[in-house]
C-alpha cells in the first residue's frame, strides 16, 4: 500500500496554478451554459422531436380537422389558425425548460454549478437562451410547412418575423414559471402533470383555434383575459397587418410582469434549495 | 489564494452550526476547526449529518444557527468569496453525465473565468494528469466507477482550490480505484490544498486524515487524531482460525491467559477472536501458539470497525454491519 507518486506524474503540474482567472461576466457565463444545453442536443437529437414533429402534427391535424367546419375551407382557416398553432406549440414546449432543470437538480451537477462563483441566474438564462433557439426552430418548421400548404401572411414576412419575436419574448417569460415550479415540485412526473394542468385549459380556452366572438359571453370574458389569447391576437394581428400598439404593449407588459414575479422567486428558490 | 486572509490559520472555523429540516435537527450544534494544509476526516454512518454539514460549509445550505469562517471569509455574509476558494465533489457524480469528460472540464473552466483557449488547454492538462486522456471524448455516463470519481475530482480542481470538500470520495469503489483516489488526495495536500472529506470507513479516515471528527445524529461525538480515537475505542482485534477442534480449545486457553477480556470462540468456523492492544502483543500471541505446535490455518489483525467505534462512543451500533477492515492478513500454508 505504498504511495506511488509516479501514478499521476502530471498531477503536480496541474496543481501549481498560481493565479485564478477573473470570474466570468454574466453574458459569458450564460452563453457557456447555453453551450452545455446545445451539447445535450448533440448527444440526444431525439429531444428535438417536440419542436419538430409536434408542431407539424398540430398544424396538419387542426387545419384539416376544423378547416371546413369553422372557416368554410381549409385554405382560409390556415391563414387564421397558423399564428394560433404557432403560439400553442411554442407555449407547450416551454415546459421542457422546467423539466430539464428538474433533472439537473436530482443529479450532482446542480450542486457543482451552485458552488462556482459565476453570476447565478446564468444557469437559467443560458438554458432559456437555447430554448429560444428551439422555439425559433419550431416556428420556422411550422411556417415553412404552412407556406407549402398555402399560408400567405397578409403583412408579408416582416410582420411574421416580428410576430415570432413577440412570441419568443412571451415564451421566455413563461419559462420562468416552469423553472420556478421545477424547484418547488419534487419529481419530473409531478412537474409534467402540473404543467399540463395549467397549459391545456390555457391554450384551448383562448383564441388559438376559433374566433372568440362566437362564444357565450361569460366564457368570452374569461378567454379575453387569458394571456394566450392576448399573445395570439397580437401575433395574428402582426401576421395579417391588423395589429394595434395596445395589443403589442399588453403582451410586453404581461411578459414583463411574469418575469418580474417569477424570476426573483426562481432565483430565491435556486439559492436556497436544500 | 490571493484574496483569502492569510493570517488566518484555519481553513474552516465553525461554531455551533445547526440545520433543521422541519423539526429534525439534522446538524445539531457542530463546532470544528480545520488547520490549513491538513486533511480532516468526517466519520459517521448514513444519515448522521455529514453531507448536510458539508453543504453548509460549501455555501449550498444556509445554517439555521451558528456561524463559520471558511478560508477566512464569513460563510453567510461573504459567500461569493468563499466560493472562489473552495470546491466541492459531491457524493454523487457532480459532473454532467451526458457530456464527455473534456466537455465537462471545459464547461467548468469557462464558468470559473478561463478564456476559450485557456479552458481547452486546462481541460486537456487535467485529463492527462488524471489519466483520462483516452476517455476524453466519451460521455461520462459510460465511465467506470473509478474513472468517474477521477473526473469528479478533476472537475473540482480546475482552479486549484484552497479548500476541497470531498463527500464520500471512495464509497462504492474497488480497492484499486480507491487507492488511486487516495493517492490523488495525498498529492493535493502536498501541494497545499486543505481537504475536508466525509467517509463511512474508519480505515479511510485512518489512512488519510490528520484529524478525525466522529458524527452521529448531527452531533460531533468525538474528535482527535486517528491514534487518539483508536485508543479511546480500545484494542484492535486478533482473529485466529485453527485447523482442528482440539487445537481450538488449547489455543483459547493460551490466548485467555494473555487478556482480561473474554476470548470469543466460534466452534463451527474454528475461529477465535481476541481484543488485543497492538501488533507486538498480537505477534507474541501467535508465536506462543506456534511454539505449542498448534495448527493455525489463518490469522488476521483487524482495526476496530466503525461499528465498534460507535458502540464505544455511543453505546449503540450504527445499524449497519460493517465488517472488520483488515490491515494485515497472513495466510499460513498448512
Automatic annotation (TrEMBL), chain A:
Gene Ontology MF annotations: ABC-type transporter activity
Bilayer topology term: Multi-pass membrane protein
UniProt-listed InterPro entries: ABC2_TM (IPR013525), ABC2_TM_bact-type (IPR047817), ABC_2_transport (IPR000412), Nod_factor_ABC_transporter (IPR051784)
Main location: membrane
Compartments where found: Cell membrane; Membrane
Top-level taxon in the UniProt lineage: Bacteria
Keywords: Cell membrane, Membrane, Transmembrane, Transmembrane helix, Transport
ABC transmembrane type-2 domain span: 46-273
Entry's transmembrane regions: 48-71, 77-97, 157-178, 190-210, 248-268
GO cellular component: ATP-binding cassette (ABC) transporter complex
Pfam families tied to this protein: ABC2_membrane (PF01061)
UniProt similarity note: Belongs to the ABC-2 integral membrane protein family.
Protein's UniProt name: Transport permease protein
Protein species of origin: Cohnella lupini
Lineage: Bacteria, Bacillati, Bacillota, Bacilli, Bacillales
Automatic annotation (TrEMBL), chain B:
Annotated source species: Cohnella lupini
Record-given protein name: ABC-2 type transport system ATP-binding protein
Any one GO molecular function term: ATP hydrolysis activity
Subcellular compartments: Cell membrane
InterPro entries: AAA+_ATPase (IPR003593), ABC_transporter-like_ATP-bd (IPR003439), ABC_transporter-like_CS (IPR017871), ABC_transporter_ATP-binding (IPR050763), DrrA (IPR005894), DrrA1/2-like_C (IPR025302), P-loop_NTPase (IPR027417)
Keywords annotated in UniProt: ATP-binding, Cell membrane, Membrane, Nucleotide-binding, Translocase, Transport
Similarity section: Belongs to the ABC transporter superfamily. Drug exporter-1 (DrugE1) (TC 3.A.1.105) family.
A cellular component annotation (GO) from this entry: plasma membrane
Protein topology in the membrane: Peripheral membrane protein
Superkingdom assignment: Bacteria
Any single GO BP term: doxorubicin transport
Domain ABC transporter: 12-242
Predominant location category: membrane
SMART domains, per the entry: AAA
Amino acid at each position: 500500500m505504498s504511495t506511488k507518486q509516479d501514478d499521476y506524474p502530471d498531477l503536480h503540474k496541474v496543481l501549481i496554478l498560481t493565479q485564478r482567472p477573473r470570474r466570468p461576466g454574466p453574458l459569458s457565463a450564460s452563453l457557456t451554459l447555453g453551450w452545455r444545453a446545445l451539447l445535450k442536443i448533440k448527444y440526444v437529437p431525439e429531444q428535438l422531436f417536440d419542436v419538430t414533429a409536434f408542431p407539424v402534427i398540430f398544424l396538419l391535424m387542426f387545419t384539416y380537422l376544423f378547416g371546413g367546419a369553422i372557416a368554410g375551407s381549409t385554405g382560409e382557416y390556415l391563414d387564421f389558425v397558423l399564428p394560433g398553432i404557432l403560439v400553442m406549440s411554442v407555449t407547450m414546449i416551454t415546459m421542457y425548460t422546467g423539466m430539464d432543470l428538474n433533472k439537473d437538480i436530482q443529479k450532482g451537477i446542480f450542486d457543482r454549478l451552485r458552488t462556482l462563483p459565476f453570476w447565478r441566474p446564468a444557469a437559467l438564462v443560458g438554458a432559456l437562451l437555447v430554448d429560444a433557439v428551439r422555439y425559433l426552430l419550431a416556428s420556422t418548421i411550422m411556417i415553412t410547412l404552412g407556406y407549402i400548404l398555402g399560408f400567405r401572411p397578409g403583412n408579408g414576412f416582416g410582420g411574421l418575423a416580428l410576430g415570432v419575436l413577440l412570441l419568443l419574448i412571451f415564451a421566455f417569460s413563461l419559462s420562468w414559471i416552469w423553472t420556478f415550479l421545477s424547484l418547488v415540485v419534487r419529481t419530473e412526473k409531478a412537474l409534467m402533470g402540473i404543467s399540463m394542468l395549467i397549459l391545456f385549459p390555457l391554450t384551448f380556452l383562448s383564441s388559438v383555434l376559433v374566433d372568440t366572438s362566437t362564444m357565450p359571453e361569460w366564457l368570452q370574458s374569461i378567454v379575453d383575459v387569458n394571456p394566450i389569447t392576448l399573445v395570439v391576437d397580437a401575433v395574428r394581428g402582426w401576421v395579417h397587418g391588423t395589429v394595434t400598439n395596445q395589443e403589442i404593449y399588453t403582451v410586453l407588459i404581461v411578459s414583463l410582469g411574469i418575469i418580474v414575479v417569477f424570476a426573483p422567486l426562481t432565483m430565491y428558490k435556486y439559492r436556497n434549495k436544500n | 489564494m490571493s484574496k483569502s486572509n492569510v493570517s488566518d490559520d484555519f481553513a474552516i472555523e465553525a461554531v455551533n452550526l445547526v440545520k433543521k429540516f422541519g423539526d429534525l435537527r439534522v446538524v445539531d450544534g457542530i463546532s470544528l476547526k480545520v488547520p490549513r494544509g491538513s486533511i480532516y476526516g468526517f466519520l459517521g454512518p448514513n444519515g448522521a449529518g455529514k453531507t448536510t454539514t458539508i453543504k453548509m460549509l460549501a455555501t449550498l445550505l444556509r445554517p439555521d444557527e451558528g456561524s463559520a469562517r471558511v478560508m477566512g471569509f464569513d460563510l453567510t455574509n461573504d459567500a461569493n468569496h468563499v466560493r472562489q476558494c473552495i470546491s466541492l465533489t459531491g457524493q454523487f457524480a457532480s459532473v454532467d453525465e451526458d457530456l464527455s469528460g473534456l466537455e465537462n472540464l471545459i464547461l467548468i473552466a469557462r464558468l470559473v473565468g478561463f478564456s476559450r483557449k485557456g479552458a481547452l488547454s486546462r481541460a486537456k492538462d487535467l485529463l492527462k494528469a488524471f489519466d483520462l486522456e483516452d476517455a476524453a471524448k466519451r460521455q461520462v455516463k459510460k465511465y467506470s466507477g473509478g474513472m468517474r470519481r477521477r473526473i469528479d475530482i478533476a472537475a473540482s480542481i480546475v482552479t486549484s482550490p484552497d479548500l476541497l470538500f470531498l463527500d464520500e470520495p471512495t464509497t462504492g469503489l474497488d480497492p484499486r480505484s480507491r487507492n488511486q483516489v487516495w493517492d490523488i488526495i495525498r498529492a493535493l495536500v502536498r501541494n497545499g490544498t486543505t481537504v475536508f472529506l466525509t467517509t463511512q470507513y474508519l480505515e479511510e479516515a485512518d489512512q488519510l486524515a490528520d484529524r478525525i471528527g466522529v458524527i452521529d445524529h448531527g452531533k460531533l461525538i468525538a474528535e482527535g487524531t486517528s491514534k487518539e480515537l483508536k485508543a479511546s475505542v480500545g484494542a484492535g482485534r486478533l482473529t485466529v482460525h485453527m485447523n482442528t477442534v482440539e487445537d481450538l480449545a488449547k489455543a483459547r486457553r493460551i490466548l485467555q491467559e494473555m487478556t482480561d477480556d473474554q476470548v470469543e470462540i466460534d466452534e463451527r468456523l474454528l475461529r477465535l477472536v481476541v481484543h488485543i492492544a497492538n501488533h507486538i502483543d498480537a505477534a507474541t500471541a501467535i508465536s506462543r501458539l506456534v511454539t505449542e505446535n498448534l495448527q493455525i490455518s489463518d490469522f488476521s489483525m483487524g482495526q476496530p470497525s466503525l461499528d465498534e467505534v460507535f458502540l464505544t462512543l455511543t453505546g449503540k451500533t450504527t445499524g449497519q454491519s460493517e465488517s472488520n477492515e483488515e490491515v494485515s492478513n497472513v495466510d499460513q500454508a498448512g
